[in-house]
Amino acid sequence: VFTEEDTYGLYSNLLFKYFLAEGVVCGHDLFVASAREHPDNILKELPAPLLDDTRRNELGEEAVVVKSEDSMKIAWRYQNLPKMEASPTTSTKFGHYYDVSKTMSPELFQSIKWHSFYLPEELSVQPKMKTCNMNSAYARLLESIQRIIYQEGFDGSDPQKKQKNILRIGIQSLGSMLWGDDVCSSDTPEDIHSLTKFLYVLRGLLRKSLSACIITVPAHLIQNKAIMERVTNLSDTVVGLESFIGSERETNPLYKDYHGLVHVHQIPRLNSLICDVSDTKDLAFRLKRKLFTIERLHLPPDLSDTVSRASKQDLAESAKLLSSGCGAMAIGKKHLDF
Amino acid sequence: QGKFTLLQDTRTDGSFLVHHFLSFYLRAGCKVCFVALLQSFSHYNIVAQKLGVSLTAAKERGQLVFLEGLKSCVDLLFGEEEEQSGQPSPLQFISESASNLKALFDFVRTSLAPAGSDSWKGPVLLVDDLSVLLSLGAAPVAVLDFIHYCRVTVCSQLKGNIVVLVHSNEDSEDEENKLVVNSLCHHSDLILWVEGLATGFCKDVHGQIKIIRRVSLELTAEQDLIQIYQYKIQDKNVTFFARGLSAAVL
């Protein structure tokens, strides 16, 4: 899973933590890699899972409010259509929900094994694998991941291991300068193949083991768009987060309920000719006090005096961006849960 | 016989064509060398089973030579020294600074070389997908050389066919990829160009396919034949129909 970071990295960090938190709750092993902050700190800040009964109460409240239906007078034809659900149907329980205002308690960590890779600490170790002209930080990370996969038996190499578990790998801010790659800082980087080679080898490692990986990348800093295209081709799922902070959309009344947009650029088409289609491609996210939600972009009715919306241009553009991706979207696989 | 088919996809995923050609040639009894760079063997196997062909059986009877790029690359980088069986890895160019794809070509050549006991009809080389080689550090010229050598061996000498998948995007900034795609377009006998609809996403029509038969290459002063259809991908099948005549509309 590949996430393009938003400009200030706030929300992508949140997604990253959700992925790891889901791993803890499901009992998967974790591998956290970062060049920016120590993985221990990252893990201390994982959101706490919401227990079943609290969630159900919240849902109950919302459902009650919606109930009041006046019969429509003018647009009566629309009466028969089902009420538009802002968030995907919550009747099927898939994954867990998290409370962003609280951090996960340490007891939950005790049942799982977690491994970390903090680049400043690893710089002293020389990589043993053939580096093949790859950036040495990436090479070390790959070696570390491969070692864990092999030692813990995620690739099925140890037939004695009865219980199969999944390894959730999280890599933060790949491609940024902290990893020693100048892909983000110059138009013609020294080694344009390091990042793509890294991704290819990582893909190979993931395919032959029971693991899933989320990577966040500051895509807005990468000036060479060709690299982003290649990276997209090498990934299974690509999600871009565009936050409204600091952009003109922040004050745009259309977007006042939301904090940003979610662009799903690509979804996996694995083991099948087709991939699952979802009805909508306009998704936006918002961070409430306790919850981070992703929902359909709902435009409020245009009640202004002017005949057309001021930002129709804007919307048309974003719609084009959203719909020109791969022809379909998937119901989230496990690693897309929150 | 001796044809080079180019599969090109723009704004969508054209891999369903790869699955089609794979099962088509296997069912026709040809010997296939499949260079699968982007997905694992089990992915192709599962889809092929839905299409009625078993890749494992084909591999066992020697009809299919499968190069799983991902696995090969990981073995190359993390394998121990004793595993060198004397034959260099086909993806050697990744670990070497010289970016030439000779090892890959040698692999293709040896796997499609006719052995005495074979009773297969013409050899076929299938590549999914070529754009990945550029991501791995091969220079565009090296990729084109590789294809050229393969054409000489497979199409001219062995009278076999080649099918190659590449990605292309109209507003792409990937110059190297554009170079490779343009060059291959000029040399192909048949181009199957799969595109996402220009109007955006649609549930019933997944895209449009342009079939270009390069009749102009045959020096008979005729223009290329172009046919355009739209398609919808289903679980075991892809349905094609004329533009605007999707089942949802009729």
From TrEMBL, chain A:
- One Pfam entry for this protein is PAXNEB
Which UniProt keyword terms apply here? Cytoplasm, Nucleus, tRNA processing
Q: Which GO terms describe its cellular component?
A: cytoplasm; elongator holoenzyme complex; transcription elongation factor complex
Q: Where in the cell is it found?
A: Cytoplasm; Nucleus
Q: Which CDD domains match?
A: Elp4
Q: In which pathway does it act?
A: tRNA modification; 5-methoxycarbonylmethyl-2-thiouridine-tRNA biosynthesis
Q: Which GO terms describe its biological process?
A: tRNA wobble uridine modification
Under the heading InterPro entries, the entry gives: Elongator_complex_protein_4, P-loop_NTPase
Q: Which domain of life is it from?
A: Eukaryota
What is the protein's known function?
Component of the elongator complex which is required for multiple tRNA modifications, including mcm5U (5-methoxycarbonylmethyl uridine), mcm5s2U (5-methoxycarbonylmethyl-2-thiouridine), and ncm5U (5-carbamoylmethyl uridine). The elongator complex catalyzes the formation of carboxymethyluridine in the wobble base at position 34 in tRNAs.
Query: Per the similarity annotation, which family is this?
Result: Belongs to the ELP4 family.
- Name by which UniProt lists this protein: Elongator complex protein 4
Which species expresses this protein natively? Answer: Psophia crepitans (common trumpeter)
Quote the gene name from the UniProt entry.
Elp4
UniProtKB/TrEMBL annotation, chain B:
Q: Does the keyword tRNA processing apply?
A: yes
GO CC aspect terms? cytoplasm; elongator holoenzyme complex; nucleus
One of the GO BP terms on file: tRNA wobble uridine modification
Residue ranges the record marks as coiled coil: none
Which keywords does UniProt give here? Cytoplasm, Nucleus, tRNA processing
- Give the InterPro entries listed for this entry: ELP6, P-loop_NTPase
Pathway(s) of this molecule: tRNA modification; 5-methoxycarbonylmethyl-2-thiouridine-tRNA biosynthesis
Q: Which Gene3D superfamilies match?
A: P-loop containing nucleotide triphosphate hydrolases
Q: Is Cytoplasm given among the entry's keywords?
A: yes
Where in the cell does this protein reside?
Cytoplasm; Nucleus
Record-stated family:
Belongs to the ELP6 family.
Name of protein: Elongator complex protein 6
Species this protein is from: Psophia crepitans
Gene name in the database record: Elp6
